[in-house]
Amino acid sequence: PEAITVQELANRMAARGGEVVKALFRMGVMATLTQSIDADTAELVVQEFGHRVKRVSESDVEIGLEGAEDTDTDLAARPPVVTIMGHVDHGKTSLLDALRKTDVVAHEAGGITQHIGAYQITVPDGSKVTFIDTPGHEAFTAMRARGAGVTDMVVLVVAADDGVMPQTVEAIRHAKAAGVPLIVAVNKIDKPGVKPERVKQELLQHEIVVESLGGDTQEIEVSATQRINLDKLLEAISLQAEVLDLKANPNRAAEGTVIESKLDRGRGPVATVLVQKGTLKQGDIVVAGAEWGRVRAMLDDKGRQLKDAPPSLPVEILGLSGVPSAGDNFIAVENEARAREVSEFRQRRARDKAAAAAGAGRGNLTDMLA
Ligand code: GTP
Ligand code: MG
């Protein structure tokens, strides 16, 4: 039963059509603005946008106005989410480690520092920055394809002694395709005889023009291991964040993306999620990918137990039924019945997609044999 076109659904939610297309894509549904989707699918989209749903008839969906699209007054500033990318061995992990040591509150935490794929630091001026460890280009591509849009900017690490390499170019391509600004960190400037100038020239060939050459890409020369210019890099990030004017509504049901996940022997399924909208609370019922559960415990990157996680904070959550995939969307829902419904819907979608792919494969084989 065709219920509503994507455009009409977007209009009713006062959302952008493209956002609805993206949400559908995340759910495994490929649809254009003019295409119709069934009421079940529409209802899930509506839910994912944080609206209430009222079924007028079996096939029609009415969207409740309560919890409607965030207005300007709902929005509050949120910390930037920065992904570090670059060629292998250029110093991504070293830089993340070095930046983490600049955290002015890390020492107060007293908790055990655990290695999770994302962390948030507080810089001396009191503002916060979230860093995501390079999730591997594949994972980044997957997240982008799902429209997850986790990162606000990319810090591109280029080793001064090695210059622009294939994965550097790939990272530039990803950042451009995702439409996120890029900051260049020329690393390892402590090494004798290195020529950071050469890196700038090489970047030109990939249409990255740094400020010192008259362009608009910020570029900082750093040494991760010698801790040179880390403050300048953080300043560059703050400046970029200011330009982006990043905001989210902290007062709504949480929504975000799974950064990484694992099955822990003692703790069961553990997922590191980035809260992008709303505030995730301990005890919330969430659906992550096709898995769901009640958030039994929530920990930050310093191992502290949290009751609330606001936008841009990466947290580890315990209590899911299974292990979701990196890049999966997660949402907090009102009750277990709803969680089950969404989870079943996503599982069904995944099965249908797999079946369709297998079907297409058979078709090709038949074509080949014909
Ligand atoms: P992959 O995760 O394997 O892609 O590497 P990476 O980009 O995370 O690089 P990593 O931080 O592991 O650093 C690679 C090597 O470069 C290590 O031996 C680091 O000690 C060294 N290194 C990183 N930063 C610097 C630096 O600023 N100066 C010098 N001299 N060496 C550095
Ligand atoms: Mg590394």
> How many strands in all?
20
* Sheet with the most strands: spatial strand order: 7-8-6-9-10-11
Q: DSSP strand (E) fraction?
A: 25-35%
Q: What distance separates the N and C termini?
A: 35 Å
Low-confidence stretches: 64-68, 108-114, 362-370
| C-alpha geometry | globular
Number of alpha- plus pi-helical segments: 10
Give the ordered list of helices and strands: EHHEHEEEEHHEEHEHEHEHEEEEEEEEEH
Residues in helices, as a percent range: 25-40%
Q: Which structural category fits the helices and strands? A: alpha+beta
Ions, cofactors and other ligands present here are:
guanosine-5'-triphosphate, magnesium ion
**Mean pLDDT rating:** 84
Largest sheet: 6 strands, mixed
C-alpha-based Rg, rounded: 22 Å
Describe the 3D structure.
- Belongs to the TRAFAC class translation factor GTPase superfamily. Classic translation factor GTPase family. IF-2 subfamily.
- Residues 77-247 form the Tr-type G domain.
- Its main location: cytoplasm.
- GTP binds at residues 86-93, 133-137, 187-190.
- It is found in: Cytoplasm.
- This protein is of the alpha+beta class.
- Helix content is 33%, strand content 26%.
- The strands form six sheets. The protein has a six-stranded mixed β-sheet. A six-stranded antiparallel β-barrel has the order 13-14-19-17-16-20. A two-stranded antiparallel ribbon has the order 1-2.
- Helix 1 packs across helix 2 (17-26) and helix 6 (137-145) runs parallel beside helix 7 (166-178).
- Residues 64-68, 108-114 and 362-370 have low confidence and may be disordered.
- The structure holds guanosine-5'-triphosphate and magnesium ion.
